[in-house]
Design a protein that fits this description.
alpha+beta, 7 strands, single chain
């Protein structure tokens, strides 16, 4: 099977994933844009109305725009790439995806429809909402304590350190624990949906923990 795969960035609705946190994969029967926790979109040939070159800024802001008719996905879908958008379009054509009006594999069609029904984001909504609320509460505790107790020094304390530590732990567990991924991800989603962004979050949150801990000791 002729398959085309490319690493780049993606914009889905108002959310943007920069290079290299998105992957485009196209075969005769399906097209996938995996933008980690931003979105993971899967299309059948019949879902795609057209694919067109898209340029906002030459080289650093160019790619292809996918016009589709999947109601559960955001309308605005762009895959960013440093390659010439016209050459990317030609490589997609060579897979046979654009001329394959009807997928010949019923099982693939059913799997794609199940993913589309879940929407593009691989993270369960209940977990995402709970995580955001917890993160904000922990940071807010430090901010309120700093102003209302008239404290001096660095405003970041145990609340923020706990929030960042939980973020690091969440990313780590999502990489190493199948049970934890089952808890936070929608059905049918797996490690490949979140691997790149989880590694990135671990690096950033680990760096923040070290620096915030150092700053709090300096200002003690």
């Amino acid at each position: 099977m002729n398959e085309f795969k490319l690493t780049g960035g993606a914009r889905v609705g108002n959310a943007n994933a920069t290079f290299p946190f998105a992957t485009l994969k196209v075969s005769k029967d399906r097209m996938e844009i995996n933008a980690s926790i931003i979105s993971h979109l899967t299309f059948k040939p019949s879902d795609v109305i057209s694919i067109e070159p898209y340029t906002m800024v030459p080289i650093i802001g160019q790619g292809i725009k996918i016009n589709h008719k999947v109601s559960t996905y955001q309308d605005h879908v762009i895959f960013w790439t440093f390659k010439d958008p016209n050459s990317v379009f030609l490589q997609i054509q060579e897979t046979g995806f654009l001329s394959n009006e009807n997928s010949s594999i019923e099982q693939i069609d059913r799997m794609i429809k199940d993913k589309q029904a879940q929407g593009g984001n691989p993270i369960k909504k209940s977990f995402a909402v709970g995580a955001v609320i917890s993160w904000n509460i922990l940071f807010l505790m430090d901010i309120l304590r700093f102003f209302y107790e008239d404290r001096e020094g660095f405003p970041i304390g145990n609340g923020a350190l706990t929030a960042i530590g939980l973020l690091f732990l969440t990313a780590l567990l999502s990489l190493v624990s199948t049970d934890f991924r089952r808890f936070i991800l929608k059905e049918g989603r797996g490690l490949n949906d979140i691997k790149k962004i989880a590694i990135f979050i671990m690096i950033i949150s680990g760096f923040m923990l070290l620096n915030f801990r150092l700053l709090t000791r300096i200002f003690e």
